[in-house]
Design a protein that fits this description.
This protein is about 85% helix and about 0% strand. The chain is mostly helical. It has one domain (about 5-145). The radius of gyration is 19 Å and the shape is elongated. The protein starts with a helix and ends with a helix. About 10% of the residues are buried.
């Protein structure tokens, strides 16, 4: 039985829905984490200062902006930009875990009192889950189209 492209699209729709929901959850967590970091800075929590904090706060905003712009502009350079944004997300994940480990190793009490550090780690895991689901959906479509 040969699967038509329309049937394959219907089969991957659940994966796409999950990836979109993860994107919404990522945005909500990002907003929470940025507010949390700003509040810590406003309270005078000096142990949160690190270059990775700035990257964590600003990279998602830049990546989403580039993503939206690419969505509106179909250009040949979109693949290169998309690859660069993906590498940036990989760096983001690494920096989130390094930053939280630094806060914990320095026993930064003002940052470790609430759920902020755990939610920051969840924010770092979401891109990994999204990539995994996207790859699985892509592999599933390729396998179905080869039948």
């Amino acid at each position: 039985m040969k699967i038509k492209p329309l049937q394959a699209t219907k089969l991957i729709a659940p994966f796409v829905s999950i990836v979109l929901l993860l994107g919404v959850a990522q945005i909500a967590l990002y907003i929470y984490c940025v507010i949390w970091l700003y509040n810590l800075k406003a309270k005078g929590c000096k142990c949160i200062e690190d270059w990775r904090k700035e990257f964590i706060m600003w990279y998602p905003l830049a990546a989403w902006t580039v993503g939206l712009l690419l969505g509106f502009m179909a250009q040949i350079s979109a693949r290169i930009t998309s690859a660069a944004v993906s590498v940036g997300w990989l760096a983001f994940v690494v920096f989130v875990f390094q930053y939280v480990a630094k806060l914990r190793s320095q026993q930064c009490e003002c940052a470790l009192k609430g759920p902020g550090d755990e939610l920051l780690q969840v924010l770092g895991v979401i891109p990994i889950v999204g990539w995994t689901l996207s790859i699985l959906a892509l592999l599933g479509v390729v396998a179905l189209l080869k039948k």
